[in-house]
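Side project, low priority. Logging it here so it doesn't get lost.
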Amino acid sequence: MEENIALEVKGVGRTFSDGTVALQDVSFSIRRGEFAVIAGSNGSGKSVLMSIIAGLDEPTSGTITLNSCQAGLVFQEADSQILGETPEEDIAFGAKNCGLSKEQVKEKVDSALEKTGLVNKREAYARMLSGGEKRRLAVAGILAMDRRLIIFDEPFANLDWPGVKQVCAIMKQLKEEGKTVLVLTHELEKVLALADRFMVLDKGHLVFDGTPADGLKKELEGWGIRNPLLSCPSIEEMIWL
């Protein structure tokens, strides 16, 4: 694998025990520092692909290779990731499991809280945070574990406008810091402005892989995706900040 490749997906397929085919021969690679958006309607295979990349599931065929990095996953349901009573405890949980010393854990926690704008919430009750804050907390935990590939699964689900803005802001920050980011969503108007790469899954197949500009020229509606150009005049405006 080339040194600048963070993730390589080769011929990945996933068929469940009941015969349902979720993915078929999906192949692509993600460069280090690349911000990629994978779109698809419900049932397209996005979440299954995300689970396989994150190591939560295994493909029926094909391979997933992470080049000297591990993936960190921000779940659609942010509450399911909260393990600590407070943000401080929650972030420390993962860092401790990485075998860091007490001093190193504290440094990682402080840095992650600072980067995600949660310093003033460090001792709050984690489950009482807003939806946007919970997703930022998930990112903080990933940063504390030094994950270089960060995957967002439907990051705007069940969020109000302030929450979407918070999530978009942390995504923009991650991009500026050179993190490798993979966003799986059908809400393109909220994040496509950040993307270097745009892919579309439909019924388990990768049907498009290219630039956002080229992707928006396709008949996205045929793949069950609303073209954001219907409401946004340009790609640059496709972010909620």
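Brief comment: The chain has six helices and nine strands.
Revisit when time allows.
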